[in-house]
Task: inverse folding
């Protein structure tokens, strides 16, 4: 069983589905449906990786409040080891408005701050085969410790624009780099640039156009998107894609197969209201048949 250490956000969210995102004027909206659920990019990766057979440890910031209790209980119920950094101001919470096109407007109710300086137990790093450092300030000490220890570092830059200072340390430290092409003028050029700068592999998702990857040596691989017959909620699709790729990679799959399985994982995620599909399994991702 591969051991993955993830550092980053986990939240308790209210997800509200509306026909379209609100315009900037006073008016009334009626929700199509809503529910409270686990959220956060690191929680999404952890849940998907656990379903795919990895042993996952998640280091996150949370409080002892109701939201924090729900976050940790949900993660532990899926077999994830949770290391909690105490929060000075409550657990992370969002209200996410989702429209019929899968677009999201996220309102942060609470962005937690660690109550104490973040220290990383060497045993956490030593035990990990792979370290995933997600975009959060409390992940930076984990990122630095993993780099000193020579562990493979995986980072997800999400909708990085190519220049944000907040993302820079994660971008530069990652051996394996993932992002969305939504804000990049030329995704392939960016991938080649990062590989030339030292990344082993860079992967960019392109929505309905699938995904593109560039590995050390300059080889570029493209795969089409996996059709999703029914789209219920797009929250967590990118994290499922990341987890599907990482799980396939750890199992020794070739690059094209990793991308194919990642695409299937992302398509499975949009068919559920939760961060991971109950049907997700290695067999589902390896199959050549359409998603049922």
Result:
């Amino acid at each position: 069983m591969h051991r993955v250490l993830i550092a980053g956000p986990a939240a308790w969210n209210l997800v509200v589905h509306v026909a379209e995102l609100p315009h900037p004027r006073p008016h009334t909206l009626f929700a199509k449906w809503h529910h409270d659920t686990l959220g956060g990019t690191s929680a999404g990766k952890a849940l998907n990786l656990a379903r795919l057979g990895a042993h996952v440890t998640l280091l996150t910031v949370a409080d002892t409040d109701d939201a924090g209790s729900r976050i940790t209980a949900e993660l532990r119920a899926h077999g994830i080891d949770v290391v909690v950094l105490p929060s000075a101001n409550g657990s992370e919470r969002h209200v996410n408005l989702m429209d019929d096109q899968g677009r999201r407007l996220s309102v942060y109710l609470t962005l937690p701050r660690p109550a104490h300086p973040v220290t990383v137990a060497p045993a956490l790093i030593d035990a990990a085969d792979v370290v995933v450092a997600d975009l959060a300030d409390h992940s930076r000490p984990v990122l630095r410790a993993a780099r000193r220890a020579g562990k493979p570092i995986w980072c997800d830059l999400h909708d990085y624009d190519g220049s944000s200072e907040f993302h820079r340390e994660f971008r530069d430290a990652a051996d394996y780099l993932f992002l969305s092409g939504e804000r990049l003028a030329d995704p392939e050029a960016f991938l080649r640039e990062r590989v030339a700068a030292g990344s082993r592999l860079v992967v960019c998702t392109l929505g309905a156009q699938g995904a593109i990857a560039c590995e050390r040596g300059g080889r570029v691989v493209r795969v089409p998107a996996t059709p999703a017959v029914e789209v219920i909620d797009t929250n967590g699709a990118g994290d499922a894609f990341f987890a599907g790729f990482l799980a396939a990679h750890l199992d020794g799959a070739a690059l094209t197969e990793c991308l194919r399985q990642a695409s299937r994982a992302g398509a499975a995620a949009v068919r559920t209201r939760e961060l991971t599909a109950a049907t997700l399994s290695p067999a589902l991702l390896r199959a050549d048949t359409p998603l049922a």
